[in-house]
Here is the input.
Amino acid sequence: MSTYLPTDNPPDEPSRLVDDFVPTLIDVGAHHLCPGCGEPIAMRCVMEAIDERELTARSVAVFGIGCYTAFSNNLDIEVLQALHGRAPSLATGVKRSKPSTIVVTIQGDGDMVSEGLQEVLHAAARGENITCIMLNNGVFGETGGHMTATTVLGQRTKTSLEGRDAALHGRPILLSSLLAQIDGTAFVARGAVNSAGNVARTKKLLLRALTAQEQNAGFSFVEILTMCPTGWFIETEEAPDYLNDNLAAVHEPGVLKDVLGQ
Amino acid sequence: MTLRMAPQAKDPQLLQGSEAIADAMIAAGCRFFSGYPMTPFTEVLEVMARKLPEVGGVCMNAESELEAIGMAWGAAATGTPSATGSTGQGLSLMQESLSEITLARLPLVVLNMGRAQGDYYQATRGGGHGDYRHLVLSPADAAEAIDLIGLAFDLTERWRNPVVVLGDYYLAHTARSVTIPAMKTRETPEWALDGSSGGTRHAKLISPLGTAKQRDDVGYDIAVHYADCVAATNEMIANVEPLAEVESTDDAEIIVLAFGTPGAYVRAAVRQLRSDGLAVGFIRPITLFPFPSDLVARATQGVKSVAVYENNQGQMLDDVRLAVLGNAPVHFIGGLSLDSSGFGIAPDLEVSVLVDRIREVAAR
Here is the structure.
């Protein structure tokens, strides 16, 4: 089915080099994440949105723990590294102490929904003027592919070998849908990075969320569906379609709540 | 930040310990406080919620101890003098964050308004993961608590390491005549986050994983950071002066040790025995870490025996034995607080009871 490039003897030139550049506000272009991972694309969207809104010199990103933590010492904006699940309370402390800052959290689904669900719910209910960003791939990627609270029914993980079974493992939490019902939230949306069109749409959602924070409108939230071919146990090039057919079929992309004026 | 409160020392006031501690924190420059109600810590949170906004500070009634310590962590990262706290039970929940805050080299004052004295190990050894130490200060009354709160904010600012102030139920709920010191303002440290270094190619990073990168400039080099943390911790321990209250030890044959509020009761018992002619001395460690080991070692040279009172099963006992190092037998004369309230209102915390226990040690 697939053609493989030998990793023990890689070609001198990438087979299909379109462009070679270091994305905006990222220090080093290389990263240690797997081929086909969606998180670097999501990170690039976030950094480009901060740059476009000219918020670079007043932003603080609070990072959770996951594969994306590889970026927490690779950015040209200020970063506070939190514990697994705890970024929203740290972000609250930063924002309340320095209200002039723009504070975003970068967390995964394991971090935000499994370990730290109470943190994000309370931050939303407080109407905390921060932007929480969840990179949702439905799996604990960093530990090697284990079930999280957003893993969809039928999804195979190392701790749901025959696929997630509602009777055995319970059902996934649709965090964006939950947050949209909370009065303190100003903007809640779900995007994806599995196609060029979805990447462009996700960036617009991030810009909108930052606008909400700039206007002190309340809690803003963007969930970004990302590919994890390693944690999904599939071929790299199958991951964008797998995301579409499985993750996005349950966690449906779109704007769930927007109280901002036009 | 403008301070509306007059920057001079106030007249003596009759204040409950909790209120004295809260006022002392504000006077010491604390401008962020977060907590979750729990007896006997609750009143500190109440007073901070009322008074901190008056000086432009922020007090958060967090949704759990996990969020209380998280909020304080975030505030501390902005260079805002910050504090949080709870009882030992609540601090158990905060330990994971306390470990990481220490590795991130952030200043923070942490109150433990304990129930009885069972949190000595938790405070001095730490209940969290990894290699770290916290400075631990233990006041015997509200007046000393006010001084130690000021010292705690100075030490945490100087060493970028959390400082624990270990109190108890009596300290929190006993009213004393005290004087709150003059308002202190603190400079924002150069490492503090405010977003402004973004886009300079040298944006600030505060992380328990450090700021050192691996050789290929991608990812953290934790080994470098951990070695730096060890060096910083050792420098702190070598330079923080251990404090203790010492009384009539020069000619003593028996030396009795106690910390915190029970120390005041033990001191009264020792004074009574002295007036009865018994050659007994008293040491009350004020810094529980670093423990005043050299002082205890010198004072116990050639004594007949050493006694330790604690309202627990014997925890400081270990540090005393390590300091005495076999120079004299060390007897435990304390015990668990078994009162039904659970708050550690020790039935044996009675001068006549303590006098009898010290006499028993003398008779051995």
